[in-house]
Design a protein that fits this description.
heterodimer, A: about 325 residues, mainly alpha, ABC transporter involved in vitamin B12 uptake, BtuC, B: ABC transporter involved in vitamin B12 uptake, BtuC
């Protein structure tokens, strides 16, 4: 009896994110002229998965009560890198993919070391590293261009058995191979502990440094997967500043929609995925309702504003005013 | 050690001193490259460019001192600029009211930010992010996605590029006025002291009888107004408003405040430091562009230098 209530309480944010996404997606599908066909699902999945990877990356760091304002730039950097090295024979392509993922993880490790060993505030440290990563991306691709192994690209963005979007399978793979082992491990629990009460966790001998470093590295890795996917999707690399900063900002929004607390220690990367899908569905929804594209940013902003205000409903339950300041 | 130092040095913050030393170092390095760096004209030109960032960073500092952050700077700036220019296109009354109207729009959005943060208790990062998107949406809708045709009024141009005191551009005077007001506000008013109090511990400030919610809301409104004012000045400088004109001001304004020794967690920092941070960032950008370094190299060097300076004096204490 009480067991599942604890579980429910723990997963409340994630379930909220899921609910928001399901409702929005249902409205979208009902109004879509073609309904839920494999192709509609594939397009929606491909667009959603890009933000989902970046949002998962953001969630990793946010859980430790940090923030990574460079995820968008890691995403752009790995996109540019992938447009150089993920080409050629299957062998070369494989090495290329590993190279890209390694580069992402390395960027994450630099962020982590600056925050942990350098004791810098994550907000400013990652703003600065974001500038560096974007600079490197520009060095790699001063002009949009490059190529990718198109067979692999098509396989990754196509359909599995003609029904299921393969990008969703890859995302599921990332959840199973990266998120679940991490969150179930001692390191993962230490990351949650570091997020909810760092001083207490430190005093109790919880390995918070290792946990935070792991979170930052995995964030870089996941952002790198996103960048790789963008390359599969577009077949080119482009160092676009607007794209990088846009993904960073929307990753924060997605994380919040998915029920991850920005104060740390609460939520999961799975919630962030639903948050990302929900954020993406807003854009698609305007398309099916045939809204003038000029209205799109405004409506997206209003939806975002309303969605986050719903989170403030918790305020009504507060009995003691001092609880506001937590 | 500190007691032996006299006058202003006794109270000087080591971070502020380091920031000013870094400015001198940058000027020295620049002068090795070209002697123009030490000419009065160049320095005044730099201060003029810095004044736009300075006005915005002043608002950002108020918010950071509270322990919050304002990510709505880019589009509040653009909105201020566009609305001022739009008002200018509406006859004589519009011309007169252009600048106040632009600022008013920023204040309104700032109030919205403040309401979300103070009364709904949504994390500031998220509220300001959302209002930024809403402001962007309104402006895209208003302009149809293109740069608006209206141009800045003579008054806006005069504020940004005119000269009233011989040799000193008006923009610097505007920045100096805003700075004087900020110093007075932070050091001499209850409101300013409340900001430091809330930044240190909102709970304690609340229990001491400060109306913390009102202070937070007003601080966000001031920040929004100053962002819009920065946009108005920039529009006067460029003589018109443009899409995305504010995008390159968000990160530098945060960096300037933090490099000036203000703690991003709130409660600690002096306005002099923010001035130093603004000058530092502007000089850095100027030197990198004078050296004709490509954009990629500029971004990398800019990032590395900010990290290096933070490692020098922006570190938080070890937890033990």
């Amino acid at each position: 009896m009480t067991e599942w209530r604890y579980w429910l309480n723990e997963q409340r944010g994630t379930l909220m994110g899921l609910a928001i996404f399901v409702i929005m997606f249902a409205v979208y599908i009902v109004n879509h002229p073609a309904g839920l066909t494999a192709n509609v699902a594939q397009t929606a999945a491909n667009k959603g998965v890009l933000l989902a990877f970046v949002a998962m990356a953001q969630a990793m760091v946010v859980i430790t009560a940090g923030i990574d304002l460079s995820v968008g730039m890691i995403f752009v950097l790995t996109n540019c890198l992938a447009s150089w090295i993920v080409v050629g024979t299957p062998m070369q392509t494989t090495f290329g993919v590993f190279g890209v993922l390694l580069a992402g993880a390395l960027c994450g490790a630099i962020n982590g070391l600056l925050v942990i060993k350098g004791r810098l505030q994550p907000i400013v440290a990652t703003i600065a590293t974001g500038a560096i990563y974007f600079g490197i991306a520009l060095l790699l691709r001063p002009f949009p261009g490059g190529a990718v192994n198109e067979d692999l690209g098509d396989a990754m963005t196509g359909q599995f058995f003609g029904i299921i979007p393969s990008s969703l399978i890859v995302l599921l793979g990332a959840v199973l191979l990266v998120w679940l082992p991490f969150s179930r491990s001692e390191t993962g629990r230490a990351a949650y502990a570091a997020g909810s009460a760092e001083a207490a966790a430190f005093m109790s001998g919880v390995p918070i440094r290792r946990a935070k470093l792991a979170a930052y590295i995995l964030a870089g890795l996941l952002a790198g997967m996103g960048g790789l996917f963008l390359t599969f999707f577009t077949y080119t690399g482009e160092a676009a500043y607007a794209s990088g900063s846009g993904y960073t900002l929307w990753s924060i929004a997605a994380v919040v929609l998915g029920g991850v607390s920005l104060y740390g220690g609460r939520g999961s990367a799975i919630g962030a995925i639903f948050g990302a899908f929900a954020a993406r569905t807003t854009g698609d929804m305007l398309f099916v309702f045939d809204v003038d594209p000029l209205w799109q940013p405004l409506l997206q902003g209003i939806v975002l504003l309303i969605a986050i205000s719903i989170g403030a409903v918790g305020l009504l339950r507060v009995r003691n005013r001092l609880d506001w300041f937590l | 050690m500190r007691a032996r130092l006299s006058g202003p040095f006794r109270r000087a913050d080591p971070a502020v001193l380091t920031a000013f030393c870094c400015i001198l170092l940058l000027l020295f390095l620049g002068s090795l490259y070209s002697s123009n760096f030490l000419s009065l004209e160049y320095l005044l030109q730099q201060l003029k460019v810095a004044s736009f960032l300075g006005v915005i960073a002043a608002g950002m500092m108020l918010v950071i001192l509270l322990g919050h952050i304002d990510l709505s700077v880019p589009w509040l700036m653009t909105m201020g600029a566009m609305m001022a220019c739009a008002a200018a296109g509406m006859g004589v009354t519009g011309m007169v009211l252009a600048i106040p109207f632009g600022i008013l729009c920023g204040v309104l959005f700032g109030l919205l930010n403040g309401f979300g943060v103070a009364y709904l208790r949504i994390p500031s990062m998220i509220v300001t992010l959302a209002t930024n998107v809403v402001a962007q949406g309104l402006m895209v809708l208003y302009t149809g996605g293109f740069s608006p045709q209206d141009s800045a009024t003579a008054a806006m141009r005069w504020l940004a590029t005119g000269v009233i005191v011989p040799g000193v551009p008006n923009a610097i005077l505007v920045w100096a006025t805003v700075s004087a007001a900020m110093v007075f506000l932070l050091a001499r008013t209850t409101f300013g002291r409340s900001i430091y109090g809330i930044g240190n511990s909102e709970r304690a400030a609340y229990l001491s009888g400060i109306n913390t919610r009102r202070v937070v809301m007003i601080a966000f409104a001031v920040s929004g107004g100053l962002s819009a004012f920065g946009g108005v000045l920039l529009a006067g400088y460029a003589s018109k408003a443009a899409q995305a004109m504010g995008d390159s001001y968000l990160l530098p304004s945060i960096a300037a405040v933090v490099l000036g020794g203000t703690s991003i967690l709130g409660g600690r920092g002096s306005y002099l430091g923010t001035v130093a941070g603004v000058i530092l960032i502007t000089l850095l950008q100027s030197i990198l562009s004078v050296m004709q370094m490509p954009e990629a190299g500029r971004q990398i060097v800019y990032g590395i230098i900010i990290i290096a300076m933070l490692l020098l004096y922006g570190r938080s204490p070890a937890n033990r």
